[in-house]
Amino acid sequence: MTSTAPRSPGARTAEPSAATSATRASGLRARLLQGARQGRWLRPVLLANLVAQVVIVITGGVVRLTGSGLGCPDWPTCAAGSIAPVVHQAEGFHKYIEFGNRLLTGPVGILAVAALVAVLLLRPARPRLRLVAALPVVGVLVQAVIGGITVHTDLSPVTVSTHFLVSMGLIAVSTLLLLRAGEGDGAPRPLVPTAVRALAVALAATTAAVLVVGTVVTGSGPHSGDADEPARYGFDPRTVSWLHADLVLLLVGLLVGLLVALHIAPSTPVARRRAWWVMGVVLVQGLIGYVQYATDLPVVLVALHMLGACLLVVAVTALWASLRERTDELVPAA
Ligand code: HEM
Protein backbone atom coordinates (compact mmCIF):
# COMPACT_ATOMS: atom_id res chain seq x y z
CA MET A 1 0.00 0.00 0.00
CA THR A 2 1.42 3.37 -1.00
CA SER A 3 1.27 6.41 1.28
CA THR A 4 -0.93 9.28 0.18
CA ALA A 5 0.60 11.78 2.64
CA PRO A 6 1.86 14.86 0.79
CA ARG A 7 5.61 15.28 0.75
CA SER A 8 7.05 18.40 2.27
CA PRO A 9 8.86 20.76 -0.15
CA GLY A 10 12.08 20.15 1.85
CA ALA A 11 11.86 16.38 1.32
CA ARG A 12 11.22 16.89 -2.43
CA THR A 13 14.48 18.85 -2.84
CA ALA A 14 16.53 16.68 -0.39
CA GLU A 15 16.03 13.38 -2.30
CA PRO A 16 17.44 14.46 -5.70
CA SER A 17 20.36 16.29 -4.06
CA ALA A 18 21.36 13.15 -2.03
CA ALA A 19 21.19 11.10 -5.23
CA THR A 20 23.21 13.74 -7.10
CA SER A 21 25.98 13.81 -4.50
CA ALA A 22 26.16 9.98 -4.47
CA THR A 23 26.49 10.02 -8.28
CA ARG A 24 29.14 12.74 -8.06
CA ALA A 25 31.08 10.78 -5.42
CA SER A 26 31.06 7.59 -7.47
CA GLY A 27 32.01 9.61 -10.60
CA LEU A 28 34.95 11.14 -8.72
CA ARG A 29 35.99 7.69 -7.44
CA ALA A 30 35.89 6.29 -10.96
CA ARG A 31 37.91 9.25 -12.31
CA LEU A 32 40.52 8.87 -9.51
CA LEU A 33 40.82 5.14 -10.14
CA GLN A 34 41.12 5.68 -13.89
CA GLY A 35 43.80 8.34 -13.29
CA ALA A 36 45.68 5.96 -10.98
CA ARG A 37 45.48 3.13 -13.55
CA GLN A 38 46.88 5.46 -16.22
CA GLY A 39 49.67 6.46 -13.84
CA ARG A 40 48.66 10.14 -13.71
CA TRP A 41 49.88 10.56 -10.09
CA LEU A 42 52.70 8.07 -10.27
CA ARG A 43 55.66 10.45 -10.68
CA PRO A 44 54.56 13.00 -8.01
CA VAL A 45 53.96 10.19 -5.49
CA LEU A 46 57.30 8.50 -6.25
CA LEU A 47 59.11 11.85 -6.08
CA ALA A 48 57.45 12.63 -2.71
CA ASN A 49 58.61 9.21 -1.44
CA LEU A 50 62.20 9.97 -2.49
CA VAL A 51 62.17 13.45 -0.91
CA ALA A 52 60.77 11.98 2.34
CA GLN A 53 63.58 9.40 2.46
CA VAL A 54 66.15 12.22 2.19
CA VAL A 55 64.38 14.48 4.71
CA ILE A 56 64.30 11.79 7.42
CA VAL A 57 68.09 11.32 7.06
CA ILE A 58 68.59 15.04 7.72
CA THR A 59 66.19 15.12 10.68
CA GLY A 60 67.96 12.00 12.02
CA GLY A 61 71.16 14.04 11.68
CA VAL A 62 69.62 16.85 13.71
CA VAL A 63 68.97 14.30 16.49
CA ARG A 64 72.64 13.29 16.41
CA LEU A 65 74.07 16.80 16.04
CA THR A 66 72.05 18.18 18.96
CA GLY A 67 73.11 15.20 21.11
CA SER A 68 69.44 14.16 21.39
CA GLY A 69 70.05 10.50 20.61
CA LEU A 70 68.59 9.21 23.89
CA GLY A 71 66.09 12.08 24.29
CA CYS A 72 63.53 9.27 24.39
CA PRO A 73 65.36 6.68 26.51
CA ASP A 74 62.88 3.91 25.64
CA TRP A 75 61.34 2.40 22.49
CA PRO A 76 58.59 2.14 21.24
CA THR A 77 57.52 4.30 24.20
CA CYS A 78 59.41 7.58 24.76
CA ALA A 79 59.37 7.59 28.55
CA ALA A 80 58.27 4.66 30.71
CA GLY A 81 54.58 4.02 29.91
CA SER A 82 54.15 6.96 27.51
CA ILE A 83 54.48 6.98 23.72
CA ALA A 84 54.99 10.78 23.78
CA PRO A 85 57.50 12.71 25.93
CA VAL A 86 56.21 13.78 29.36
CA VAL A 87 56.89 17.18 30.91
CA HIS A 88 58.72 15.92 34.03
CA GLN A 89 61.10 13.79 31.91
CA ALA A 90 64.77 14.57 32.61
CA GLU A 91 65.90 14.86 28.98
CA GLY A 92 65.05 18.57 28.46
CA PHE A 93 64.54 19.67 24.83
CA HIS A 94 66.28 16.50 23.54
CA LYS A 95 63.11 14.47 24.15
CA TYR A 96 61.12 16.68 21.74
CA ILE A 97 63.79 16.48 19.02
CA GLU A 98 64.05 12.69 19.27
CA PHE A 99 60.26 12.30 19.43
CA GLY A 100 59.82 14.63 16.41
CA ASN A 101 62.11 12.36 14.39
CA ARG A 102 60.14 9.30 15.51
CA LEU A 103 56.89 11.00 14.45
CA LEU A 104 58.30 11.59 10.99
CA THR A 105 58.36 7.83 10.44
CA GLY A 106 54.55 8.16 10.00
CA PRO A 107 54.56 10.42 6.90
CA VAL A 108 57.60 8.58 5.47
CA GLY A 109 55.80 5.23 5.90
CA ILE A 110 52.57 6.62 4.42
CA LEU A 111 54.43 7.91 1.34
CA ALA A 112 56.20 4.56 0.91
CA VAL A 113 52.81 2.77 1.04
CA ALA A 114 51.30 5.38 -1.34
CA ALA A 115 54.14 4.69 -3.81
CA LEU A 116 53.46 0.94 -3.63
CA VAL A 117 49.69 1.44 -4.08
CA ALA A 118 50.28 3.79 -7.05
CA VAL A 119 52.39 1.08 -8.73
CA LEU A 120 49.92 -1.73 -7.84
CA LEU A 121 47.05 0.19 -9.47
CA LEU A 122 48.88 0.67 -12.79
CA ARG A 123 47.31 -0.94 -15.86
CA PRO A 124 48.80 -2.77 -17.70
CA ALA A 125 50.27 -4.36 -14.57
CA ARG A 126 54.04 -3.99 -13.98
CA PRO A 127 55.14 -6.98 -11.85
CA ARG A 128 58.87 -6.08 -11.83
CA LEU A 129 58.18 -2.51 -10.82
CA ARG A 130 55.93 -3.82 -8.02
CA LEU A 131 58.91 -5.65 -6.53
CA VAL A 132 60.98 -2.43 -6.49
CA ALA A 133 58.02 -0.49 -5.05
CA ALA A 134 57.68 -2.96 -2.16
CA LEU A 135 61.25 -2.25 -0.97
CA PRO A 136 60.68 1.24 0.56
CA VAL A 137 57.76 -0.15 2.62
CA VAL A 138 59.87 -3.06 3.90
CA GLY A 139 62.80 -0.67 4.45
CA VAL A 140 60.77 1.76 6.61
CA LEU A 141 59.66 -1.16 8.81
CA VAL A 142 63.25 -2.40 9.09
CA GLN A 143 64.41 1.15 9.95
CA ALA A 144 61.80 1.43 12.73
CA VAL A 145 63.21 -1.78 14.25
CA ILE A 146 66.86 -0.65 13.85
CA GLY A 147 65.87 2.69 15.45
CA GLY A 148 64.54 0.72 18.43
CA ILE A 149 67.69 -1.41 18.62
CA THR A 150 69.75 1.81 18.48
CA VAL A 151 67.96 3.09 21.59
CA HIS A 152 68.18 -0.25 23.41
CA THR A 153 71.92 -0.56 22.70
CA ASP A 154 72.49 2.97 24.07
CA LEU A 155 73.46 4.29 20.62
CA SER A 156 76.01 1.62 19.79
CA PRO A 157 78.02 3.12 16.88
CA VAL A 158 77.45 -0.04 14.84
CA THR A 159 73.66 0.34 14.95
CA VAL A 160 73.87 4.13 14.36
CA SER A 161 76.00 3.44 11.24
CA THR A 162 73.65 0.66 10.10
CA HIS A 163 70.64 2.97 10.54
CA PHE A 164 72.29 5.58 8.30
CA LEU A 165 73.48 3.08 5.67
CA VAL A 166 70.06 1.38 5.36
CA SER A 167 68.63 4.85 4.64
CA MET A 168 71.22 5.28 1.88
CA GLY A 169 69.96 2.00 0.40
CA LEU A 170 66.37 3.25 0.62
CA ILE A 171 67.33 6.47 -1.17
CA ALA A 172 68.97 4.43 -3.96
CA VAL A 173 65.89 2.19 -4.29
CA SER A 174 63.50 5.18 -4.25
CA THR A 175 65.55 6.92 -6.97
CA LEU A 176 65.53 3.76 -9.08
CA LEU A 177 61.77 3.41 -8.57
CA LEU A 178 61.19 6.97 -9.81
CA LEU A 179 63.38 6.44 -12.89
CA ARG A 180 62.03 2.95 -13.63
CA ALA A 181 58.46 4.31 -13.64
CA GLY A 182 59.29 6.14 -16.88
CA GLU A 183 60.67 3.01 -18.57
CA GLY A 184 59.24 -0.23 -19.90
CA ASP A 185 59.13 -3.39 -17.80
CA GLY A 186 61.17 -5.60 -20.10
CA ALA A 187 64.67 -7.02 -19.52
CA PRO A 188 67.48 -4.42 -19.25
CA ARG A 189 69.60 -3.85 -22.39
CA PRO A 190 73.07 -2.33 -21.90
CA LEU A 191 73.73 0.99 -23.64
CA VAL A 192 77.50 1.03 -23.02
CA PRO A 193 80.30 -1.54 -23.53
CA THR A 194 81.11 -4.07 -20.79
CA ALA A 195 84.34 -2.28 -19.80
CA VAL A 196 82.40 0.94 -19.12
CA ARG A 197 79.90 -0.98 -17.03
CA ALA A 198 82.76 -2.52 -15.06
CA LEU A 199 84.03 1.02 -14.32
CA ALA A 200 80.52 1.97 -13.15
CA VAL A 201 80.44 -1.08 -10.84
CA ALA A 202 83.80 0.03 -9.35
CA LEU A 203 82.41 3.56 -8.93
CA ALA A 204 79.30 2.31 -7.13
CA ALA A 205 81.39 0.03 -4.86
CA THR A 206 83.78 2.89 -4.00
CA THR A 207 80.81 5.18 -3.26
CA ALA A 208 79.51 2.53 -0.84
CA ALA A 209 82.96 2.29 0.79
CA VAL A 210 83.12 6.11 1.19
CA LEU A 211 79.72 6.05 2.90
CA VAL A 212 80.60 3.16 5.23
CA VAL A 213 83.93 4.71 6.28
CA GLY A 214 82.16 8.12 6.63
CA THR A 215 79.91 6.62 9.29
CA VAL A 216 83.01 5.20 11.05
CA VAL A 217 84.50 8.74 11.05
CA THR A 218 81.28 10.03 12.63
CA GLY A 219 81.29 7.20 15.19
CA SER A 220 84.87 8.09 16.11
CA GLY A 221 84.17 11.80 16.57
CA PRO A 222 82.16 14.14 18.76
CA HIS A 223 78.81 13.71 16.95
CA SER A 224 78.06 10.08 17.62
CA GLY A 225 74.67 10.71 19.25
CA ASP A 226 74.27 11.18 22.99
CA ALA A 227 75.60 14.53 24.23
CA ASP A 228 76.55 13.27 27.72
CA GLU A 229 77.98 9.80 27.07
CA PRO A 230 78.91 9.43 23.41
CA ALA A 231 79.47 5.78 22.43
CA ARG A 232 82.36 5.53 19.97
CA TYR A 233 84.21 3.05 17.79
CA GLY A 234 87.45 4.13 19.45
CA PHE A 235 89.45 4.75 16.25
CA ASP A 236 91.75 7.75 15.89
CA PRO A 237 89.46 10.36 14.23
CA ARG A 238 92.36 11.80 12.20
CA THR A 239 93.38 8.43 10.74
CA VAL A 240 89.84 7.37 9.78
CA SER A 241 89.13 10.85 8.33
CA TRP A 242 92.14 10.50 6.04
CA LEU A 243 91.14 6.97 5.02
CA HIS A 244 87.68 8.40 4.21
CA ALA A 245 89.25 11.26 2.17
CA ASP A 246 91.63 8.84 0.36
CA LEU A 247 88.65 6.75 -0.75
CA VAL A 248 87.09 9.97 -2.08
CA LEU A 249 90.26 10.57 -4.13
CA LEU A 250 89.91 7.03 -5.54
CA LEU A 251 86.26 7.86 -6.33
CA VAL A 252 87.30 11.02 -8.21
CA GLY A 253 89.90 9.01 -10.17
CA LEU A 254 87.33 6.38 -11.18
CA LEU A 255 84.87 9.10 -12.12
CA VAL A 256 87.41 10.83 -14.38
CA GLY A 257 88.07 7.45 -16.03
CA LEU A 258 84.32 6.85 -16.47
CA LEU A 259 83.79 10.33 -17.93
CA VAL A 260 86.59 9.81 -20.46
CA ALA A 261 85.19 6.36 -21.32
CA LEU A 262 81.66 7.73 -21.78
CA HIS A 263 83.02 10.38 -24.17
CA ILE A 264 85.15 8.06 -26.33
CA ALA A 265 83.11 4.80 -26.23
CA PRO A 266 79.52 4.39 -27.45
CA SER A 267 77.18 5.92 -24.82
CA THR A 268 74.27 8.33 -24.55
CA PRO A 269 74.02 12.09 -23.83
CA VAL A 270 71.94 11.26 -20.71
CA ALA A 271 74.72 9.03 -19.32
CA ARG A 272 77.39 11.68 -19.99
CA ARG A 273 75.24 14.41 -18.39
CA ARG A 274 74.55 12.29 -15.31
CA ALA A 275 78.25 11.44 -14.93
CA TRP A 276 79.02 15.19 -14.87
CA TRP A 277 76.33 15.63 -12.19
CA VAL A 278 78.05 12.96 -10.08
CA MET A 279 81.35 14.82 -10.52
CA GLY A 280 79.72 18.11 -9.40
CA VAL A 281 78.23 16.52 -6.27
CA VAL A 282 81.51 14.74 -5.38
CA LEU A 283 83.54 17.95 -5.69
CA VAL A 284 81.15 20.06 -3.58
CA GLN A 285 80.79 17.25 -1.03
CA GLY A 286 84.57 16.77 -0.86
CA LEU A 287 85.04 20.51 -0.30
CA ILE A 288 82.48 20.49 2.54
CA GLY A 289 84.25 17.43 4.00
CA TYR A 290 87.68 19.12 4.06
CA VAL A 291 86.29 22.40 5.42
CA GLN A 292 84.33 20.70 8.23
CA TYR A 293 87.40 18.63 9.13
CA ALA A 294 89.60 21.73 9.29
CA THR A 295 87.06 23.77 11.28
CA ASP A 296 86.27 21.27 14.06
CA LEU A 297 83.00 19.98 12.62
CA PRO A 298 80.48 22.85 12.86
CA VAL A 299 77.02 21.28 12.97
CA VAL A 300 75.68 23.19 9.94
CA LEU A 301 78.48 21.84 7.73
CA VAL A 302 78.03 18.32 9.11
CA ALA A 303 74.30 18.50 8.26
CA LEU A 304 75.18 19.74 4.74
CA HIS A 305 77.67 16.86 4.43
CA MET A 306 74.84 14.42 5.22
CA LEU A 307 72.64 16.05 2.58
CA GLY A 308 75.56 15.80 0.13
CA ALA A 309 75.86 12.06 0.86
CA CYS A 310 72.13 11.62 0.08
CA LEU A 311 72.46 13.61 -3.17
CA LEU A 312 75.50 11.55 -4.21
CA VAL A 313 73.48 8.35 -3.77
CA VAL A 314 70.71 9.84 -5.95
CA ALA A 315 73.23 10.94 -8.61
CA VAL A 316 75.15 7.63 -8.73
CA THR A 317 71.89 5.64 -8.93
CA ALA A 318 70.64 7.88 -11.77
CA LEU A 319 73.97 7.42 -13.59
CA TRP A 320 73.76 3.66 -13.12
CA ALA A 321 70.20 3.62 -14.51
CA SER A 322 71.30 5.56 -17.61
CA LEU A 323 73.80 2.86 -18.62
CA ARG A 324 70.98 0.51 -19.65
CA GLU A 325 67.45 0.75 -20.97
CA ARG A 326 64.34 -1.32 -20.54
CA THR A 327 62.05 -2.13 -23.45
CA ASP A 328 58.30 -1.59 -23.42
CA GLU A 329 57.48 -5.27 -22.99
CA LEU A 330 54.52 -4.78 -20.63
CA VAL A 331 52.49 -7.55 -19.01
CA PRO A 332 48.72 -7.45 -19.73
CA ALA A 333 46.35 -6.56 -16.87
CA ALA A 334 45.46 -9.42 -14.54
C1 HEM B 1 82.26 12.09 -2.02
C2 HEM B 1 82.65 12.71 -0.96
C3 HEM B 1 82.20 12.36 0.43
C4 HEM B 1 81.11 11.62 0.84
C5 HEM B 1 80.05 10.93 0.01
C6 HEM B 1 81.14 11.61 2.29
C7 HEM B 1 80.21 10.94 3.09
C8 HEM B 1 80.22 10.96 4.46
C9 HEM B 1 79.27 10.25 5.28
C10 HEM B 1 78.16 9.36 4.77
C11 HEM B 1 79.55 10.52 6.57
C12 HEM B 1 78.83 9.99 7.81
C13 HEM B 1 77.58 10.77 8.11
C14 HEM B 1 76.86 10.21 9.30
O1 HEM B 1 77.25 9.17 9.85
O2 HEM B 1 75.90 10.81 9.73
C15 HEM B 1 80.70 11.40 6.58
C16 HEM B 1 81.29 11.92 7.72
C17 HEM B 1 82.43 12.70 7.71
N1 HEM B 1 83.17 13.08 6.59
FE1 HEM B 1 82.74 12.70 4.66
N2 HEM B 1 82.24 12.33 2.72
C18 HEM B 1 82.92 12.79 1.62
C19 HEM B 1 84.08 13.52 1.62
C20 HEM B 1 84.79 13.87 2.74
C21 HEM B 1 86.10 14.49 2.75
C22 HEM B 1 86.94 14.82 1.50
C23 HEM B 1 86.42 14.71 4.03
C24 HEM B 1 87.72 15.32 4.50
C25 HEM B 1 88.43 14.83 5.46
C26 HEM B 1 85.32 14.24 4.87
C27 HEM B 1 85.25 14.32 6.24
C28 HEM B 1 84.25 13.80 7.03
C29 HEM B 1 84.20 13.93 8.48
C30 HEM B 1 85.20 14.63 9.34
C31 HEM B 1 83.04 13.24 8.90
C32 HEM B 1 82.51 13.08 10.35
C33 HEM B 1 81.46 14.16 10.63
C34 HEM B 1 80.90 14.03 12.06
O3 HEM B 1 81.66 13.86 13.00
O4 HEM B 1 79.69 14.11 12.20
N3 HEM B 1 84.36 13.74 4.04
N4 HEM B 1 81.09 11.64 5.28
Describe the structure.
Helix 2 packs antiparallel against helix 3 (94-120). The radius of gyration is 25 Å and the shape is flat. The protein has one domain. Strands 1-2 form a two-stranded antiparallel ribbon. Helix content is 70%, strand content 2%. It is mostly helical and 334 residues long.
Derived structural class = mainly alpha
Strand line-up of the largest beta sheet:
1-2
* Beta-strand percentage range: under 5%
The first-to-last residue Cα distance is 49 Å
Quick structural summary:
By secondary structure, the chain is mostly helical. 70% of the residues lie in helices and 2% in strands. A two-stranded antiparallel ribbon has the order 1-2.
Could you list some keywords that capture this structure?
334 residues, mainly alpha, two-stranded antiparallel sheet, 9 helices, flat, disordered N terminus, binds protoporphyrin IX containing FE
Write the layout of secondary structure elements.
Elements: H1 9-37, H2 42-65, H3 94-120, H4 127-152, H5 157-181, E1 188-190, H6 194-219, H7 237-264, H8 269-294, H9 299-321, E2 324-326
Antiparallel strand pairs: 1-2
The structure holds protoporphyrin IX containing FE.
